[in-house]
Design goal:
Layout: H1 2-14, E1 17-18, E2 28-29, E3 39-41, E4 49-52, E5 55-59, E6 63-67, E7 79-87, E8 92-99, E9 111-116, E10 132-135, E11 146-148, E12 154-157, E13 169-176, E14 179-184, E15 187-193, E16 209-214, E17 220-230
Parallel strand pairs: 10-12
Antiparallel strand pairs: 1-15, 2-17, 3-6, 4-5, 5-17, 6-16, 7-13, 7-17, 8-9, 8-16, 11-12, 13-14, 14-15
């Protein structure tokens, strides 16, 4: 429990810190901006993913698309993922990592970096979904700085999401050993170290591929400049 509370404190102190890392020539592209070569969609609603004007578009029923290309054999451990993201009005999506391809359903393995500026889910962009949440409900009934529930899920209260619908933002997801760092436009939103007593089944730091989520038919989210740098 002490290790978990320490991780929570690090998350809170890290929120809003300036990023120091700059994208370097060590990054390798995962998306050619023209085709879905190297990517494999789920069998459910696989047409929810297509390419338009250089962006990978997620629009349609619930579905996920996973990187299955040659870079790193689509099996990443320590890395920095760099990409640009744009949400349209009230849209929801997510960037999965340390995950694995599956034919249908919500990915059972790995983690999700939330993508959501104004969708009804109060867990907003920059969240490590379901673990450390940037929490911005539209009808907040209580005010707090940080709260931990009985499942040890952390909620960091913010007045709004750190991203804006209709505007491209820079997203960086870094995994180094047992620490996950998420940055939005160069600002750290989450820095979480997995506790030694962590017991969340397949949602644990290990290795795997990356992927994107099409949340539901009302949502449209675009991704481009998708690059990864190995840190091992």
């Amino acid at each position: 429990m002490k290790s978990f509370l320490l991780s929570m404190l690090v998350c809170l102190l890290a929120y809003g810190a300036e990023a120091q890392e700059a994208v370097s020539n060590d990054f390798v592209s995962l998306f050619d901006g023209k085709t879905l070569n190297g990517w494999t969609a789920t069998k459910e609603n696989e047409k929810s993913f297509f390419v338009k004007d250089g962006a990978l578009v997620c629009k349609g029923g619930r579905a996920h698309i996973f990187y299955t290309g040659k870079v790193g054999n689509a099996d990443f451990k320590n890395f920095e993922l760099s990409l640009k993201v744009k949400t349209l009005s009230a849209s929801n999506s997510g960037v999965y990592f340390h995950t694995a391809y599956q034919k249908k359903g919500w990915p059972s393995a790995g983690f999700e970096a939330q993508v959501n500026a104004t969708h009804g889910d109060p867990r907003k962009t920059g969240s490590l979904y379901g673990i450390v949440n940037i929490w911005a409900p539209t009808d907040a009934k209580e005010s707090f700085v940080v709260r931990v529930d009985e499942k040890q899920e952390v909620f960091i209260m913010q007045p709004k999401a750190p991203s804006t619908d209709g505007e491209w933002f820079d997203y960086h997801i870094i995994v180094q050993d047992k620490t996950i760092t998420i940055k939005v436009n160069g600002m750290t939103t989450v820095e979480w170290t997995q506790p030694k007593d962590w017991s969340k089944g397949e949602r644990k730091i290990g290795r795997g591929t990356v992927g994107f989520q099409a949340h539901d038919p009302t949502c449209e989210v675009l991704y481009k400049d998708i690059k990864i740098k190995m840190l091992e």
